[in-house]
Description:
By secondary structure, the protein is of the alpha/beta class. It contains 3 helices and 7 strands, in the order E-H-E-H-E-E-E-E-E-H. Helix 1 (9-21) packs across helix 3. The chain is globular, with a radius of gyration of 15 Å. The termini are close together. Bound molecules: adenosine-5'-diphosphate and magnesium ion.
Amino acid sequence: MKALLLADADATDALGAALARTRPPRAVVHLHGDLGAGKSTLARALLRALGVRGAIRSPTYTLVERYPLDDGGEAWHLDLYRIADAGELEFLGLDGDEPTLWLVEWPERGAGALPKPDLVVDLSIEGAGRRAGLIPGTPAGQAWVTAVTAGHGVAGHS
Ligand SMILES: Nc1ncnc2c1ncn2[C@@H]1O[C@H](COP(=O)(O)OP(=O)(O)O)[C@@H](O)[C@H]1O
Ligand SMILES: [Mg+2]
């Protein structure tokens, strides 16, 4: 696992852009962290860097927002903070056409009903900034972490 220090919200945006630039063709990303840790900031930056224009709404109430991507794929941004149990995910119609990118806030609340993550980003508050742990869950995720930390120009530590 690599840990990055993100001094301000611009640094979170830069990480989102770097993740977008280096992403594998299909990816499941779990965004872990308390309220205010920067999960939505990172998700929004990633979506913007992938070419999403217009409003990027918080999925806090809708649970999922879907975005077509320029490459013909689709990104799904989920926020499971308000679900009572993972069974509610079944009613979202998430089966069927699978997205090429999942960005899931509060993934622990969907345990058992979500695909296995290629990458877990573990965000926490560190002073005035944030700390982002990058934890790969698959070989594709491992390659992603290597690429993003190299391209990001930030020295990670194991
Ligand atoms: N690296 C950072 N340093 C300082 N503040 C940040 C950083 N990244 C994001 N923020 C700020 O933290 C606040 C909460 O972010 P948000 O993404 O909504 O958190 P979450 O979705 O985890 O609840 C926002 O005001 C955002 O600008
Ligand atoms: Mg959020």
